[in-house]
Specification:
The protein has 2 helices and 2 strands. With about 70 residues, it is mainly α. It has a single domain (about 5-65), classed as Helix Hairpins (Orthogonal Bundle). The chain has a two-stranded antiparallel sheet. Helix 1 packs across helix 2 (about 25-50).
Length: about 70
């Protein structure tokens, strides 16, 4: 789960990266790790939301939304 503090840290690192001083190697690694965690949490949340969707067919049957291969 991504907390507000994590998002604030991601944003702070992004602002620092755009500044003239830039990021240190340690901060670049932290930024990459935080971004990866954020993306994984976003994907998990989206997949959970999509798993609740069902499609009602014209004949009245209901089928769950399937993940594309």
């Amino acid at each position: 789960m991504i907390t507000k503090e994590t998002i604030d840290r991601i944003n702070a690192l992004a602002r620092k990266a755009k500044s003239p001083q830039g990021l240190t190697e340690l901060e670049k690694a932290e930024q990459a790790r935080l971004r990866r965690a954020y993306i994984e949490a976003f994907r998990a949340s989206t997949e959970a939301a999509l798993s609740c969707i069902e499609i009602k067919n014209p004949d009245g049957t209901v089928t769950p939304l399937k993940k594309k291969p």
